[in-house]
Amino acid sequence: MTKGIAIAFFMICTLGSCAAAFPYKFYGIVPSTSTLLGPDPKQDLPLSLCEPDDEAKGKCVVLFREEFERLMADYVSTKERLKQCEQNGN
Questions:
Q1: pTM (global) more than 0.70
Q2: Which residue range is the domain that position 54 belongs to?
Q3: Structural domain count, the chain
């Protein structure tokens, strides 16, 4: 299994369980097949969608797994703290 496939597999399997709490779309990547992996194969996208054009230099943002996990954890934590703050204010 190549490193790219392993990373994509990890992101989908491990982080997929948190997807309900993190409402933004994210994809794993398999560079050897030029594929962005969605939550299920029907939602896979071609990597060519990330190619620049006249309107946008970069259409895709790449995060390594550790950064993505911190981003997701921060989002979930902030959402929970906001919920607690709203409950305490009423």
A1: no
A2: 3-89
A3: 1
